[in-house]
Design goal:
31% of the residues lie in helices and 21% in strands. The chain is built from 17 helices and 24 strands. The strands form seven sheets. The protein has a seven-stranded mixed beta sheet with strand order 18-19-17-16-22-23-24. Strands 3-2-1-5-15-14 form a six-stranded mixed beta sheet, with helices on both faces. It has a three-stranded antiparallel beta sheet with strand order 7-6-9. α1 packs across α6. The longest helix has 23 residues, at 416-438. The model is unreliable at 1-19 and 313-325 (pLDDT under 50). This is glycerol kinase. Belongs to the FGGY kinase family. One of its GO terms (molecular function) is glycerol kinase activity.
Length: 536
């Protein structure tokens, strides 16, 4: 393990590189907060502002947010960042990049700029009955070869369909062209470029966000007519789709209520948050893999300029049967203007960091989440204990909402330390499941997010994967990815290969167990998972 600060090309990070006043602004519209971050041209943060927004939970399974509040917070953090830049004598930013929480969806009236309903968040499950009925009629994988996705409430199409059905007058207004729809990147972009008061307001999204809607043909790079018909979504409701690096438009400061110094600054990058994190981590070449450890985890493996379509997690016969990537999502990783799209396989894991929170809040085993590593280090292993944390069912590669959490192997010998270690192993096993399901060989796994600071977890991850785990010292890779996209669009860098040098590598964890021990550990996990599914 080494803490040397190096770039992906092996060169050191020179002190004071790229001195000067130029900067790029990243707007990071996330699930719980919105941030504006100014980066210099070495990728370093030079000004940051952040505001949380409300989580609205009107019924079990329903998760909503106020799109108006999100835009108000976006404007506020941009104002704060520009004030902080002015204090440091920085000139006008070169460009703006936007990254966002992807599937979260809003509909609004373009003449007033007022949403017709709260945004429906990606975590929301209210559309499950609709999805079940549609899957019974056409099959859960009816759109997988086109969109890369199974039928699931996670994606935007079901949320748009629900809004059109349940908001009075929405369906008629949509058919008449009096409504607009979009994920949160589209909403922020529309308001930045003028909104209802602007003369050149832009209604657009990028290919990475479009690829998460269940409405987009990821091969043809256009909205899919069959999908639109299945969900009853008028094409005119949807934004134009462009590459992640594209001249989207310019900030209309007067109409948007922003400082005049931002007026006319181009928006040259738009990209979904997990794809943006991969870009910020420099995981941009075929075979590159990244994992972001947060409340849950999102693991992407770059497959190059061709999509790899997987079969259903249930192994259903069909056009994808026998293909690799069972249970994984096929998504667009990035596209630069004038270049082919790059694709990725993605596995979403709902419970990783939240498992540690459960040890703290549910069981009272630790006082602070950071204490889990010290507790787990009090024992040499988990004493045969395995935790399958299916608190919200199992996502990739199983996609079993009916799964329930289990703990196996308990004896009177087991202590708090063994449970803590089993929890860390559970996080690492789930990530190993996704890599194995991809059917792809990876040389290393790049990692970021809060739990990536846990050295023991990262060592366990390397041991179970049998490949090195490379931690990043680059702060906030999601925002850095958006800044990179904007910088490429502004001509600062030619392409993603040039932006890889902005990624600063930190500690590296090499596998420390042999294949026999690795297989034994994985077999114990595979024996426990069926118990969470009621199969053993």
């Amino acid at each position: 393990m080494s803490a040397a600060r190096t770039r992906p090309d092996g060169t050191a990070t020179p002190a004071g590189e790229w001195h000067g006043g130029e900067c790029l602004i990243a707007v990071d519209q996330g699930t719980t907060s919105t941030r504006a971050i100014a980066h210099d041209l070495a990728g370093r943060q030079i000004a940051v502002a952040q505001l949380e927004h409300d989580q609205i939970l009107p019924r079990p399974g329903w998760v909503q947010q106020s799109a108006a509040q999100i835009w108000g917070n976006t404007r506020a953090v941009l104002i704060t960042v520009m004030e902080r830049l002015a204090e440091r004598g920085r000139p006008r930013p070169l460009a703006v990049g936007i990254t966002d929480q992807r599937e979260t969806t809003v509909l609004w009236d373009p003449t007033t700029g007022v949403p017709v309903h709260d945004a429906i968040v990606w975590q929301d499950t209210r559309t499950q009955p609709f999805v079940d009925a549609l899957a019974d009629r056409v099959g859960v994988d009816a759109l997988r070869r086109t969109t890369g996705l199974p039928l699931h409430p996670y994606f935007s199409a079901t949320k748009i369909a629900w809004l059109l059905e349940h908001v009075d007058g929405a369906a008629d207004a949509a058919r008449a062209g009096r409504l607009l729809a979009g994920t949160m990147d589209t909403w922020v972009l529309w308001n930045l470029t003028g909104g209802a008061r602007g003369r050149r307001t832009v209604h657009a999204t990028d290919v990475t966000n479009a690829s998460r809607t269940l409405l987009f043909d990821i091969t043809r790079l256009d909205w899919d007519d069959r999908a639109l018909d299945l969900f009853g979504v008028p094409r005119a409701l949807l934004p134009a789709v462009h590459p992640s690096v594209h001249a989207y438009g310019r900030v209309d400061a007067r109409a948007a209520g922003l400082p005049g110094v931002l007026d006319g600054v181009p928006v040259t990058g738009v990209i979904g948050d997990q794809q943006s994190a991969a870009l910020g981590q420099g995981a941009t070449r075929p075979g590159d893999a990244k994992n972001t450890y947060g409340t849950g985890s999102f693991l992407l493996v770059n497959t190059g300029d061709r999509p790899v379509f997987g079969r259903s997690a249930a192994g259903d016969d069909g056009p994808d049967a026998g293909a690799p990537a069972g249970g994984l999502l096929t998504t667009i990783a990035f596209r630069q203007e004038g270049s082919p799209a790059a694709y990725a396989l993605e596995g979403s894991i709902p419970v990783t960091g939240s498992l540690v929170q459960w040890l703290r809040d549910g069981l009272g085993l630790i006082d602070h989440a950071a204490d889990v590593e010290a507790l787990a280090r009090t024992v040499p292993d988990a004493a045969g204990v395995t935790i399958v944390p299916a608190f919200s069912g199992l996502y990739a590669p199983w996609w079993r909402p009916d799964a329930r959490g289990v703990i196996t192997g308990l004896t009177r010998y087991v202590t708090r330390g063994h449970l803590a270690r089993a929890a860390l192993e559970a996080i690492a096993h789930q990530c190993a499941d996704v890599i194995e399901a991809s059917g792809l060989e990876i040389a290393e796994l790049r990692v970021d997010g809060g739990a990536s600071r846990n050295d023991l977890l990262m060592q366990i991850q390397a041991d179970l994967l049998g490949v090195p785990v490379q931690r990043l010292d680059t702060a906030e890779t999601t925002a850095l990815g958006a800044a990179c996209a904007a910088g490429i669009g502004a001509g600062v860098w030619r392409d993603v290969d040039e932006t890889r040098r902005l990624t600063v590598l930190g500690d590296r964890f090499e596998p420390a167990i042999d294949d026999v021990a690795r297989r034994a550990a994985r077999d114990r996990w595979r024996d426990a998972v069926p118990r969470s599914l009621g199969l053993a």
